[in-house]
Structure formats: C-alpha cells, structure tokens
Design brief:
Blueprint (H helix, E strand, L loop, with lengths): L10 H6 L5 H19 L5 E6 L2 E6 H4 L11 H8 L7
Antiparallel strand pairs: 1-2
Amino acid sequence: MGGSILGQRAIGILSSGGTPSPHDRLLATRLGPACAELIEEGESGVMVAITRHKCKAVSLEKVAGRLKTVMPDHPWVRSARLVGTSFGD
C-alpha cells in the first residue's frame, strides 16, 4: 500500500475512553473490509458509510465541512451526560 495513508477510528472508544463495545467491534468488522476493498480498487477521496444496512463509498467532498447536529435532548446525548461526557457547555 505504498503512499497510502490509512486511518481507523472507533467512535465508542474515543467518546468513552474505554474498551470497544460489541457494537464498535461489529462496526469495525463491517467497515474495515469495505475500506480495504476500496483501497485495493484504487479509490481515494472517499469514506465508507453504512446506509440502509449496506457499506458504500461517500465522496469526502460531499461530507467535508458539513455540520451534522444532534438535538440536545436526544436520548444519546442524555445517556452520554449520565456517564459524565462533557459537551463544553
């Protein structure tokens, strides 16, 4: 993979600072091979997303610089606050 820069991110680990959850492991199991296939095919400038239960390449131009917000009263935000996650407010 000469010249390629690869990155992996497990969101659950970054946000909680703990061991990967079963969901994190399943997500990595699906996204990792999809990323490897795209690299093997020579794709670049894309990220892998899961849409409608399928992995697909999404152009970074389509997602870079876009702000995707979550409602402050969303159950995930409430749960994160309950375990001590700070949102800077």
